[in-house]
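Two proteins, back to back. First:
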Amino acid sequence: MIGLIWLGSCAYYNTFYNARQYYAQGLAELEKSSDGAITANVRKYFDTAIEKSNKVLLNYPESRWNDDAAYLIAMSQYYKTDYIAAKKSFEYFFATFPASELRSRAEIWYGRCLWKMGEKENALYQLRKSSQKEKKPLLKAEIYFAMADLFMAGNDLDSALYYYRHTVSTAQDNPLAAEAQYHIAEINLKRNNIDQAITDLKRIVDYSPTEELIDKMQVLLARIYRESGRFDEARELINAKLNDIANESIWGELELQLGLLYLAENDYKSAESRFSQVAEKYPNTPIAGEAHYLLGQLYLEHFKNLEKAQSSFEAVRRADRNSKYALDAQSKATDIKRYFTLQSKYREVYKNVQPFLEKIEGGVDIAAVDVDIEEVPEKLKKAIQLFEEEKAKIADTVSVFKNYYQVLYEIGEMNYFEFNNIDSALVYFERIHRQDYFNPIRDKALYAVYYLMRDIGQNDAAEAYLDTMKTRFQESPYLQYIQGQEVRLPGDNIQARQLFLTAEQDLDFQPRTAMDKYQQVIRQYPNSRYAEKSMLAIAWLYQHRFYDLDKSIEWYEKFQAEYPESEYGDYAGGELAKLNQIVEWINKSAEDSLQEGEQAAIPDDESSTSKPVSGDSE
């Protein structure tokens, strides 16, 4: 009988042990990603951990590891970003195991889960309540740290700073205090409190930091010196660390900081050389992805080499598919490709418009046909035929000029908005508004020049262009818009871009707000290029920030349906194919798990009689 009990104990412990191993592998795989992307492997490990934990609960209801198994299920669902399921699992855990030693830690992650679901007030209420009743200093510090993280994610720096300081004072000589101290330094850097940020950073060594945190500290210190203009101190620190083999793990990040230092000093050739070296020496890493992106920016903004810029931007995703720069780099590469297409199109439309320009400028009236009613019917018929032919030529002329002006306008927009070539943009807009011939967008071009001048601070010039609009285009919707009247400018990229840029500013700290603004662009400016970009950005957000597989697929498919001819089509198609492969794998794994039996082995270094300690990492 004792033997049967022991065998049963071994069986359910082996099942739980395997669940815990798969959970640990999921965490390890998640940490490899530069931005916590949920890959197929991550899902596989957490799904298997959930499956095996469920077997413990279902097959061994009296197991001493049942609370661990229930906790593991909720945590695996949380890390998979299946927050609705995780919330339910945490609540099941609280109801079923109210006295579990894991309850306090589960409450912390339950609060984080509520925040991820957008229930911010409930999340903070839950964490505050937990902090008030928790007696153990380290667990109380973890609660403070969680609250600080949530405020940091919402860009509420005052509240984040308050709770990070509470974490430091409560955790004392624990690595968690060192981590909180690091974030305190980051906040002061964001606020441009440079001296305080340096002081805060140097205090980290007082709180038992991990080796990884010490490395991060060195990189952040170099960055602080650079961003505060203390270039000599930054260079001295970076070179000292690069010459010490003990810092080999952060050499790539330090070299990147050196390139950024050259950039800050306007030494563009040295910056180009350093970023190129980083991309070559550390391939297929987040550092290489960032180096390629910085190279693209250099070629675009300083060297004005669009071919090299396009190549560098396209290399970002090859180096790091999950790079935080991936979407922006792809957008810039596509914009450059479109610019080249527009240039080719311009050469073609100019060839078509040139003969008309020569005719018009030569004073030939192509619409005039002299018809004498006294002439014989045959001659009258011929004259009418000639008249109709000339009318057709006029229609062709209008169409040719419309294409010509539209291409000029789009090239002007791209020079200003995408490439920051203000002088070139001005040339194109001026060329449009100064030509009268069959020109339907003179007022739009004048508005673009007015907006450009206001944007660069030349208000007197802007007012002069506004006076021209008032004199020549009193009924223009663009004039009415400037004068504050209620009017919508359909397909207007200028206004759509302003809203789009505010969304991009919220992308890192407030992704939900960014998504709302992207949807606003789509609603208000459906015919603008930024509606197209916004729809792609929403799909990307669901994929890389919210990890919502179904929603991401839905928006990529919607993008393909709305913009079948988009220059971003290849990118969207590639991402959609990748996500559909994940869905296919998940479905196949679910089918396989129903058919496979339990295959567990007793590990040599684990005892079946001692309860394991569940750990988790942020």
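And the second protein:
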Amino acid sequence: MFSAFFISRPKFALVISIVISLVGFIALSVLPVEEFPDVAPPQVQVTANYTGANATAVEQSVAAPIEDEVNGVDDMLYMSSNSNNDSTYTLTVTFDVGTNPDIAAVNIQNRVATATAQLPSEVTRSGVTTKKQSSSLLMVITLLSPKQSRDALFRSNYASINIQYSLSRIKGVGSVSQFGPLDYGMRVWLDPDRLTSLNLTTADVSNAISSQNVQATAGQLGAPPYDTRSHFQLTIQAKGRLKTVEEFGNIVLRANADGSFIRLKDVARIELGSQNYGSTTTLNNSPAAAIGIYQSPGANALDVANKIYAELERLEKRFPPDVEYNIVYDTTLSVRASVQEVVTTLFMTLALVVAVTFLFLADWRSTLIPTLAIPVSLIGTFAFLYLFGFSINTITLFAIILALGVVVDDSIVVVENVQRLMDEEGLEVREATRKSMQQVTGPVIATTLVLLAVFVPVSFMPGITGVRYRQFAITISVAVCISSLNALTLAPALCALILKPGSSKPTGPLGYFAAAVDWMRDRFGSTASAMVRRVFVSLAVFALFVAATGWLFSRVPTGFLPLEDKGALMANIQLPDGASLSRTQEVAERASGMMREIAGVRDVLAVPGYSLLSGAARSRRVST
């Protein structure tokens, strides 16, 4: 018999349980932690810029060739694109759940490369970018100037150069990007009247800037082959690209016959500003540089957030005067709260299960055996979560909480039967354990198969909902299987080592409780016998329960996920087409004031796209 081997060799059973627990502990230390499983379909984004073109020109010259080639790529669900009046083009391709995002990005890149030959030269010169798009926004960081001595342009570029690159290198960070970045650019404001009077065109200006703002390669002096021997070989350092306003102003547009020159500063106003003024980001109606950090798929959200906090503290020591950062939105706050609540519930459930087990078994030796089986089953489950690529989230932790009450059942059956054989037949503990396992091995396996028959089919549900059910079902199934293994190996070995004849007879209050349980058991047995003899009555009661279940199922509200307080309020405001930036800023300021007054939030962050992220109520420390 299978269990007889472990009854004679209890150390072997203990080693198996210890190995399962150690592997589970190792997996527990590397499993990612998140609030819910990642079920968002992977996305790949293609961006391009057709300088000076309006939305119609971008759609016809850029969008059409790219989308004709991309359409129908493997595993694609749908695609959406935006052609804007600021000369930008964005294509987002959404793939089926489970698609490898790296393979999807490569497939899109190959399709875009095919369409490159059909794009205008201005687009190919500035580049067409293809990258994975992460939809898991982890946190938003703003760069502020409390005394307003640093303008928005400085803060945005400081964030791009000194903060974004450092945060991008953190393991688990998928991407780091600014909302409406203000990158430095040399702005040339042409005077049409001066151009006309001097018989110049914008093409002349553009060609002059392109030809004179280049990185020159002047070669070397004294490089072989040579006619006369040279003592030195020198590389000529020529002046490269222009950097200052004065240098751009001295660009020659035309040389006149009298030896005079027409320079760029004669027909234009030149300044160092932003490449794009089409968007603005504010925090409480004050300019701010907002940085969005996106999490990599499968990364540990809590670990990534902790590393970001540490990196920001390190970078803050090198900030210039009157520059500071503020984390206005952090999704890990709700993750920490949710996981902490589930862990607290887990320990409460564990204490309750142990207490109830002791109440019914009425002996600490008997209670110890199923109690030891609980951590082995639950901790060992984490090893299989790692193998299946799951994470520690509210779904898997909830499944473990439910499994906690199930994993003790098999061991309790073994212990109770061993006690019965010792008390009623007077068998020695080892002999009672052997005989008990002969009687209960079949029922233990049968009950396990029944539970698996319920949960395993659930794991094959398709779609986004199926991902959540799959993690729930597999977690419980694995815990039940490990519990059955413990019942056939660890439980009989511990019974042979720990139990003693006569130790399970309760006295005092526990004795009265045991008598009441026996009385209820007898009444239940007689009622069950009566129902078996009246089959039609039993079927009618069963049909009544089924009908009641169906009626309640149709009345209970449905939803994908329960609504929870995330500590943030988000609103989206869409203005009519053609609305000016000043009008947008005016609406954002009014909306920010309304949200702070009505919703009771502390900070309001307005980001491009006319959306607002509002933080938690005044009673909370961190807000958006």
